[in-house]
């Protein structure tokens, strides 16, 4: 929590103003960024469109500092899925991150910015609408704010453990020193927020008109709630909530039986933004302002003296780890769409060869560049700007391809895991149906019985580089997680490195989970972060 951004009245009012100041000429298209022209707050919410677009920025700019580097530096480098030796993002490769880490602070600030903006809508929007605004539209927008707040807190509690619960930032305008609340209370807020979102949000049937799928829905909230229940080991509710979403038919697997003409590879193409599998995705926008676009094409892409897949002169900040290179079976269709190996050909990805353009053929391992990993990341790497295939690029080499926070494939695996953990047989038909749907989409033969380890490994293969493996490791017995991570080669293709994680720097860690240190900046402003967590009293 950056105190001067979160608790000071003047800046809080700026946050509120940023959300509310949108002129009546705003387009209905989701990707149109709201203007920040100075107009009267009282005159703003006169139409349904103005209310419906009030949350647009909360799908991109407020998440940028979280997604740009921090998310991958922690969740993927930390978990052993990714390798990097770039000094700004490599601390988690050997578990040495400190509270002074700039990217740690960036991720922390970003999550609190999401909470502050969500709180502004929840607390102030109802009093700023005119008589022409539909109550359903108003409720849906407030539901989106509850959803965003819950998601930000879900990351905070899994990354830092006990944190302050703030439901209205103005409550603390005169007292920036605030105690942190217990982990169980933070989870209770998350549960309540997703429940509230599921009641307020519109129902959707996600079809082929992808523009209609950009905002979250009742099904999105219920799917995220199923994941929360899984982390709480409330397997009966995780199973029930997952089944409710599955039975609704809202979401579908690209390349599954419902959409056989699509495929896993389509998930990460620009033209498939907001497809039927997307439960919640960050919506990046090229508007000429730094921090509105997705930087992954540059962060992940190959950039050497001979070949470039990004629109910049740099690339490959993150690469696959040596540990993940042998994860996939030979016939697993996900491997090539997740990891680029020497000799792989990608006709849909245009690369630049000097001044010429052509399809990407991955060069030999010692020429891939970036981090000397001998391989590159394919997910979110869509190549040199190529019309409708990649969309636009801005002056910072950022693009508009979405970032998944949750996909339907994960919900199916949650359903399978919750079913087994709830006491079902390893050959339970419902669990197998969900599990094998993901596996068969990848071109693999179905299994006739499954264990937790099967599901755990399948999650890693399906969700690699999407920011989940660190959290998966954090919810298994710590001894098991340490054994997995200690055996990972965390070096490059030439120099192996092995590191053993130790108890984190947080006083609440107690050796049971993977918690990060609080940022030094905010710890100095709010020393209560180092005090014992207190119960939260809910209204």
Question: How would you describe this structure to a colleague?
Answer:
The chain is mainly alpha-helical and 539 residues long. Among the domains are: 1-202 and 516-539, Serine Threonine Protein Phosphatase 5, Tetratricopeptide repeat, CATH 1.25.40.390; 296-399, no CATH class. It contains 18 helices and eight strands. The chain has helices spanning 3-6, 9-20, 41-44, 48-52, 64-75, 102-124, 135-160, 183-200, 218-231, 235-248, 296-300, 334-338, 408-421, 429-441, 452-463, 469-474, 478-486, 520-525; strands spanning 82-83, 278-282, 319-320, 339-340, 345-353, 356-361, 376-377, 403-407. The strands form four sheets. It has a two-stranded antiparallel ribbon. The protein has a two-stranded antiparallel ribbon with strand order 2-8. α10 (235-248) packs across α13 and α13 packs antiparallel against α15 (452-463). The two termini are 23 Å apart. Belongs to the SusD family. Residues 1-27 form the signal peptide. Keywords: Cell outer membrane, Membrane, Signal. It is found in: Cell outer membrane. Pfam families: SusD-like_3 (PF14322), SusD_RagB (PF07980).
């Amino acid at each position: 929590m950056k105190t001067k951004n979160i608790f000071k009245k003047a800046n809080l009012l700026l946050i509120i103003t940023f959300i509310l100041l949108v002129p009546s000429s705003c387009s209905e298209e989701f990707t149109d960024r709201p203007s920040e022209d100075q107009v009267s707050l009282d005159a703003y919410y006169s139409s349904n469109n103005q209310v419906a677009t009030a949350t647009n920025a909360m799908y991109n700019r407020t998440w940028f500092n979280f997604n740009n580097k921090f998310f991958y530096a922690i969740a993927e480098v930390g978990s052993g899925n990714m390798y990097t030796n770039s000094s700004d993002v490599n601390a988690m490769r050997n578990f040495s991150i400190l509270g002074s880490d700039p990217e740690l602070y960036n991720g922390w600030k970003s999550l609190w910015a999401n909470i502050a903006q969500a709180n502004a809508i929840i607390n102030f929007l109802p009093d700023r609408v005119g008589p022409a605004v539909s109550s359903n539209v108003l409720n849906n927008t407030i539901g989106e704010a509850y959803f965003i707040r819950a998601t930000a807190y879900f990351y905070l509690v899994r990354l830092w453990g006990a944190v302050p619960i703030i439901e209205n930032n103005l409550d603390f305008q005169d007292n920036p020193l605030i105690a942190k609340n217990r982990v169980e209370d933070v989870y209770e807020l998350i549960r309540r927020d997703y429940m509230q979102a599921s009641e307020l949000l519109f129902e959707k049937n996600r079809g082929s008109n992808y523009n209609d799928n950009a905002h979250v829905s009742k099904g999105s909230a219920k799917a995220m709630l199923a994941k929360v229940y899984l982390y709480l080991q409330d397997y009966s509710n995780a199973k029930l909530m997952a089944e409710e979403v599955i039975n609704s038919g809202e979401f579908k697997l690209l390349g599954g039986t419902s959409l056989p003409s699509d495929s896993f590879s389509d998930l990460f193409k620009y033209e498939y933004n907001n497809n039927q599998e997307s439960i919640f995705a960050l919506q990046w926008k090229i508007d000429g302002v730094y921090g509105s676009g997705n930087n992954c094409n540059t962060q992940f892409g190959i950039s050497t003296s001979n070949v470039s897949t990004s629109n910049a002169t740099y690339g490959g900040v993150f690469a696959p780890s040596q540990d993940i290179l042998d994860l996939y079976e030979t016939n697993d269709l996900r491997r090539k769409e997740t990891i680029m190996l020497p000799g792989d050909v990608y006709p849909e990805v245009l690369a630049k060869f000097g001044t010429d353009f052509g399809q990407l053929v991955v060069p030999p391992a010692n020429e891939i560049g970036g981090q000397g990993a001998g391989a590159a990341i394919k997910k979110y790497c869509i190549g040199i700007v190529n019309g409708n295939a990649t969309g636009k690029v801005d002056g910072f080499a950022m693009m508009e391809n979405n970032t998944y926070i949750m996909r339907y494939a994960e919900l199916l695996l949650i359903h399978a895991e919750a079913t087994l953990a709830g006491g079902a047989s390893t050959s339970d038909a419902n669990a197998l149906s969900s599990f094998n749907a993901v596996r068969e989409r990848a071109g693999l033969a179905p299994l006739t019985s499954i264990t937790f380890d099967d599901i755990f490994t399948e999650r890693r293969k399906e969700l690699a580089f999407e920011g989940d493996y660190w959290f998966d490791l954090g919810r298994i017995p710590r001894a098991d997680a340490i054994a997995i991570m200690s055996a990972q080669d965390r070096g490059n293709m030439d120099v192996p490195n092995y590191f053993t994680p130790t108890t984190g720097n947080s006083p609440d860690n107690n050796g049971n989970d993977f918690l990060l240190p609080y940022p030094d900046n905010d710890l100095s402003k709010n020393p209560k972060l180092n005090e014992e967590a207190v119960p939260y009293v809910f209204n």
